[in-house]
Design goal:
420 residues; alpha/beta; Rossmann fold; 2 domains; elongated; methyltransferase; cyclopropane-fatty-acyl-phospholipid synthase activity
């Protein structure tokens, strides 16, 4: 079985592969490797060659990554990334593979319960990015368990890229610094009104409310909204802060001094950007500020839809594009002027590093809370994404814009007014 796996991945292995039948392949002294534990794992691998099959086998416990704790398999994944180059077998190679593995392994079986439906089967939940379907996929990812997220994200309960003021900063210091930076970029001051769309557990709402800003946050996740609103109450911020369980498109209020979107754009869909940015423009007063914080691709020409692993196990219906596309779509909205963009790619790699550390430190409680399969999934997903940011496969951009007043003088400072 190890030799069969070697044929699937191709190339000269620098990792060690072992299998349940006692076979092995690759250097004996390799520090990192894969251990295929069960025949079911073989079925997952051959029926979905590539990252989806690997994820199924790993989440189900049929495949081990050797060399790291399952809560942080970063180093093992780095070693594997250089070796795992799945290619489609030729007809002759496929025939040989069937003979080697056995035809019974090519009969598809049910995936692990953590897997979402494929895109084509989600139409029962509505058209892509309809309100009903968006609510369903957001619930899939964010309504896992508030306690689990507390264990992974730490005290800030912030599930977006932190901004590290220095290499020695803690995760909590970096998340606080991120909110400080966004608050300053939006030129917020006591008495202002902020709308934070896709507010998560309300970190930006609470940061602004503590500084006398009337902040409204909305999220499609019921569990997030309940946790966030309770935190507003517990911290005595109800005079200034509110979190609603709501689609952002259902917000009726307008005239805000600023709108922030921190980690929502990935769920919007590129085709919906014009309506999305028009909504943001319509919610701010003349001269008001808009900040969009989102994961991006390093260029603008590739397909926007996520690959099978991310789409089935992490962010169903998620879409990414380059910062240039985001900027151009914002510029195409009448009266929106883009002022500044900034890339925080390295900061997201560091954020993911610290989330993985939290998962390892709290592994036993995390497994008790959500099950070992889901905990393994999160370790795999976060470590894999960290490699993506390390290698410039994905980035994280802030894009700052303002709503220009019709026929009025621009009152913004001539140069950036915030500290990095």
């Amino acid at each position: 079985m190890a030799n069969v796996f070697e044929k699937l991945v191709g190339g000269d292995l620098q990792i060690r592969i072992t299998a349940y039948d006692g076979s092995s392949a690759g250097p004996e002294d390799a520090r990192y490797g894969l251990n295929l534990k069960t025949p079911r794992g073989t079925t997952y691998l051959v029926t979905a060659p590539g990252d989806l099959g690997l994820a199924r086998a790993y989440v189900a416990g049929d495949l081990e990554l050797i060399g790291n704790h399952p809560g942080d398999p970063y180093e093992t994944l780095q070693a594997l990334a250089g070796d795992l180059k799945f290619t489609r077998p030729s007809p002759l190679e496929m025939a040989q593979l069937v003979r080697d593995v056995g035809v019974e392994h090519f009969k598809p079986i049910a995936p692990p319960p953590q897997e979402s439906l494929p895109r084509w089967r989600r139409f029962a939940e509505g058209f892509r990015h309809s309100k009903d379907r968006d609510a369903e996929v957001i619930s899939y990812h964010y309504d896992v368990s508030n306690r689990f997220y507390e264990l992974v994200l730490g005290e800030s309960m912030t599930y977006t890229c932190a901004v590290y003021p220095n290499l020695e900063a803690t995760l909590e210091e970096a998340q606080e610094n991120k909110y400080r930076l966004i608050f300053d970029k939006l030129r917020l001051k006591p008495g202002d009104r902020l709308l934070d769309i896709g507010c998560g557990w309300g970190g930006m709402v609470r940061y602004a409310a503590k500084r006398g800003v009337h902040a409204l946050g909305v999220t499609l996740s019921k569990e997030q909204a309940e946790w966030a609103q309770q935190a507003v109450v517990d911290q005595g911020l109800t005079e200034f802060g509110e979190v609603r369980h709501s689609d952002y498109r259902d917000v009726k209020e307008s005239g805000f001094d600023a709108v922030s979107s921190i980690g929502l754009t990935e769920h919007i869909g590129v085709a919906n950007y014009p309506d999305y940015f028009t909504f943001m423009r319509d919610k701010v007063r003349d001269g008001g500020m808009i900040l969009n914080h989102s994961i991006t691709r390093p260029e603008n020409s590739t397909r926007s839809k996520a690959g099978p692993f991310i789409d089935r196990y992490v962010f169903p219906d998620g879409e990414l594009t380059g910062s240039g596309t985001i900027i151009s779509k914002m510029q195409n909205v009448k009266n929106l002027e883009v002022l500044h963009e900034e890339n925080f790619r390295s900061h997201y790699a560091m954020t993911l590093r610290d989330w993985n550390k939290n998962l390892v430190a709290n592994w036993d409680e995390a497994v008790a809370e959500v099950g070992e399969g889901t905990a393994r999934l999160w370790g795999l997903y976060m470590a894999g994404c960290r490699i993506g940011f390390d290698r410039n496969i994905v980035q994280l951009h802030h894009v700052l814009a303002t709503k220009l007043p019709d026929g009025q003088e621009d009152l913004l400072p001539l140069r950036p007014w915030w500290q990095p």
